[in-house]
Amino acid sequence: MVEIYEGPLNVEEILTRWYNRFKDKNYGAFINFVGIVRDENGIDGLSFDIYEPILKEWFNSWQEKAKEKGAHLLMAHSKGDVPNHKTSYISAVLSPQRKVSLKMIEEFVEDFKANAPIWKYDLIEGKRVYAKERSYEIEGSGLLFEGEKK
Question: Do 115 and 138 contact (CB within 8 A), yes or no?
Answer without folding.
Answer: yes
